Fold this sequence. Notes:
Blueprint: E1 35-41, E2 56-58, E3 78-79, E4 86-88, E5 94-96, E6 99-100, E7 106-108, E8 110-113, E9 125-133, E10 145-153, E11 168-173, E12 181-186, E13 201-205, E14 217-224, E15 231-236, E16 239-245, H1 251-258, E17 263-271, H2 274-280, E18 294-304, E19 323-324, E20 330-332, E21 335-338, E22 346-351, E23 356-363, E24 369-378, E25 386-392, E26 401-405, E27 410-424, E28 427-435, E29 443-451
Amino acid sequence: MRVRPIAIALIAPLLAVVSLGVAAEANVPTPPADWTTVWSDDFNGANGTLPSGSNWIIDTGHGYPGGPGNWGTGEIQNYTNSTNNLSLDGAGNLKITPRRDASGNWTSGRIESQRSNFKPPAGGVLAIESRIQMPNVTGDAALGYWPAFWALGAPYRGNYWNWPGIGEFDIMENVNGINSVWGVLHCGVNPGGPCNETTGLGANRACPGSTCQSAFHTYRFEWDTSVAPNQLRWYVDGQQFHSLSQSQFPADTWANMTSHAGYFVLLNLAIGGAFPDALNGPTPRASTIPDKPMVVDYVAVSTKGDGGTTTPPPGGSSAYGTLQAEASSQQSGMGVETTTDTGGGQNLMQIGNGDWALYRGIDFGSTPATQFVARVASGAAGGVSGLVEVRLDSRSNAPIGSFAIGNTGGWQSWRTVPANMSTVTGTHDVYITFTSGQPADFVNLNWFTFGH
């Protein structure tokens, strides 16, 4: 939502230590050996085309339907799905370009990831990273420019009034062509609260070496659950410039922004609004020039840590309660959306062949479980179907139970499907896996449970 600071003091620029003012890379960098890339886009594609629809949702207009006007920030531009504002350049980049017409109306671009469940594995670390050149414009000509790379809590989708409680990580923000990157956390309540809303808890610094506007720099956010208390960290070109600790927040505030399904990633270039206005008065101005793009080389989400081979933590969930599908420890290939099913909440969506979700420490007790039950819906085309499977402790183990599902009448037409399975006792990591002979998505999953 990014309701922005009323007053912000600039932190004195740090000494430049390294320059990354080089051309765009062709592909997403290979992560270090102990990290795994779980989602990415390198923006390789034909010049003048839109970014991948399987990876991104294109936001349009002046706000979400039913949500705050001007995206809740006071920004003035109209976001469009036109390649005039949002397009690949044919050289491995995405360009988000603000335009101004003869009447003075501004347009620009904003995208958000289809997936909305990015979070660390249990006891591990999540990293969200992008290599970006900010709009190459400074001084009076840049007044009102507001490029951003950030993430919002999944429960914001479909609600639009639960900010900032669901959490917001601003990984890179910049305004008015200033040679500085801001990293900000939004949380709690608005106004005030533990995150000092609407300002948030932030820090900023100059880009190392070359200015933020004249070169590419790498902006990274890490959410670390491998340490106690947990930590949030912000980096530019590998140099940490901001951190926050779980110990700084009330328990309910921390839980509200970390215990839901996860986060989705956003890239946008706003014009005007609370943040640029707070630093330089009303923006944009007659001196502000259009057509200076934010250039994005890649976006990558990676994880490090527990991959499912360690002993489940004590006190895991009972196998015989309702296990919400979106509350996985890890998953691959799926999105999250608000469900219309009885009880509300969210469901996993866009599930196809090879997708999976992990639920740690599920306690089956000493009486053998013999049945698997799941709440599913499907709007798959005729002839498209697949299997919903249960595997224990490793995705490479054979399924202990499964059922087939095809079209149920729509992606929100829910039915409860039971399946017999091999007997299970004790505590296990449970993998729900999905197998199909077709590449198309074939099912949504709301919840599952087990029975005797």
